[in-house]
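Let us practice reading a record.
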Amino acid sequence: MKICFIINQLYKSGGIERTITQRLNQLSKYHDVFLITLENGDRPYFFGELADVNCIDLDFNFERKANGGFKKSPTNINRSLRSYVKLQRTLKEIKPDFTINVVGTHSLFFLPYIPYTGIKVLEYHSSFYESKVSKAKKYIYNKYDQHVFLTEEERKIAGFIGKKKVVIPNPVQTDKYKNIPYENKKNRIIAAGRVLDIKGFDRLIKAWAVIHLDFPDWIVEIYGESDHEVLSKLKHLIITYDLENSFYIRPATLDILKLINDSKIYAMTSHFESFSIVLLEAISLGTLVVAFDCPTGPRNIIDNTNGYLVENDNIELYAKTLKQAILSDKKASLLAANGYIRSQDFALDKVIDKWKVFFSAQK
């Protein structure tokens, strides 16, 4: 069976890039897998090469806004038209049985009108809570044959989609690391993700400012690719709260799982999360998660028996919860152990089995 995935790029360090790389490597053991990237260029894939995947890059470097959004410009209109033609030609050569478009990829609007795609599938990695869905997008979404969501909650929110909708979560695979016992992990609160406003890292700075003087032997570290404007605002906050000696923002790193494994607490402060792969990785490594109960991801992975869910945007309560987690090592260790058990529901082989069933069901 020929299966084709379409995504903008794989050179960045985000959770989507990580889980797509992981999935392609696994599915290529069972199917003839193709990857079409629209604007990866000759940049290396951040999470490693795809040895058994047929990789094709269309090399369209769309003009982008400072936040990475698509810029409406004459150049981009021209490149969009060319990308439609080039994508159609590429799919005609492949003739896949399935074509899966990852939402956020520019081809979202083109694919329904391209032949030679087989069954058209739309895969969602962001929450519908983030922004209102326009009538145009609702129309386009309903042109796809199948829809894959990460959680049941997101599937139900998408009531405006009349086509078949299935739930397949992101998987977790951390077996190359042996979990460090909780009591031996470093006194570190860690967070990871692109440094954007939506990640709410300012909320983590404000919460840490409330309690940092009580814990001089603890540090907080954020790892991720930065939007320069957002990074500047966060650094200003760090200086304002006099946290320069305990709060650090680092570049994205391939060693993020190693660092999470050696940290006692993973802090999630996002305003929205459809399904956080890094949260899932954290609990699989026996690290305690403290998360705002934002729509919709964290509550679909943890509850207060295997982590801490804090009322969304209650920064004072978040600070108190961090303090409780630091002071109550025994309880934190128990919650982290329960988190590890919960993570096994998302083991890579179980999730890949769901994809195999999804493909075979359409035969």
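A brief commentary: The chain has two domains: 2-170+347-360, 182-346.
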